[in-house]
Amino acid sequence: MINRVEQIIEFLKTKPDDALLTHALALEYIKVGEQQKARGIFEALLQRQPDYVGSYYHLAGLIAASGETTTAINWYEKGIEAAKKTGDTHALRELQNALNEILF
Question: Which of 4, 33, 63, 104 could staple 72 via S-S, CB 3.0–4.6 A?
Answer without folding.
Answer: 63
